[in-house]
Amino acid sequence: MPVLRILHLVGSADNDFYCDLSRLYAQDCLAATADPSRYDFQIAYITPDRQWRFPHSLSREDIAVAKPIPLFDAIQFITAQNIDLMLPQMFCIPGMTHYRALFDLLKILYIGNTPDVTAIAAHKARAKAIVEAAGVKVPRGEVLRQGDVPTITPPTVVKPASSDNSLGVSLVKEATDYDAALKKAFEYADEAIVEAFIELGREVRCGIIVKDGELVGLPLEEYLVDPHSKPIRNYADKLQQTDDGNLRLTAKDNIKAWIVDPNDPITRKVQQVAKECHKALGCRHYSLFDFRIDPKGQPWFLEAGLYCSFSPKSVIPCMAKVGGIPLDELLMTAINETLA
């Protein structure tokens, strides 16, 4: 097989937080999957000012010396590079949508879901509506804008309609708590979702990959939650800023999250529901879904996270590893699906 020239699309056109998060994952991916006999990796790094850079690596030093150029020049540069496929590493909404669509226009193949699908998944209420129409159970909810009054009696969960990493999420136990919870949610999005609180149970995440055209369910990841002390997860459960200003993945410490034994009876049940979600949303190559498991063992869809950086710390590679699929095989499977 000839060496594939793969462009890693890194950074954020939205904010510094997502820019750092993207760089963190992409740096790990580049280090873990480097294989000169298979891949020639190139890097495109986008910053919130919408400038493009093409650094030799994702070290701060190499990024600093790379010349910033506008979109027009970046397109000229990319189209001259004979890129075989692009690997999206951007987590912001523009990165998940507009920048993927750009590569559709350039007719450069890329791993992962298409911009129309990622746009739907980024809006939690729209994703819920689609999977519910396919027969998947979802918490009863409503979408509110500024000035709207919630009609669902607490306990409820209030969250931004389009934000990740549990930013702006609150558990509302009394109706008097709604104002503060909505104010917090509206800091991150123009719309907020109020949905019925699903009693614990458990909270799990399920990854799906496509191999030879077939959907394969991966071992589940379970989160540390407790009906009394920790009924929902928050931002600190996922990410933390270190003293040197970098981001650390707190959810990878095997304390706040861990991989479920594949023989656990909940695994097959959740995998089947996740496959229904994958098909209903029109996903390709891979998908990732969060579920709340109620005390009766019923999975309830919470949200879709349709990304994978192919870093060893990324959720889908962690799940795949436990399922007997090493990172290099996982990446090659995704590449084969993309080229097919």
TrEMBL record:
Keyword Membrane applies: no
Keywords, comma-separated and alphabetical: ATP-binding, Ligase, Nucleotide-binding
Domain ATP-grasp, first and last residues per copy: 128-336
A Pfam family annotated for this UniProt entry: Dala_Dala_lig_C
Family: Belongs to the D-alanine--D-alanine ligase family.
Annotated organism of origin: Scytonema hofmannii PCC 7110
Official protein name in the record: D-alanine--D-alanine ligase
SUPFAM superfamilies, sorted: Glutathione synthetase ATP-binding domain-like (SSF56059)
Single Gene Ontology MF annotation: metal ion binding
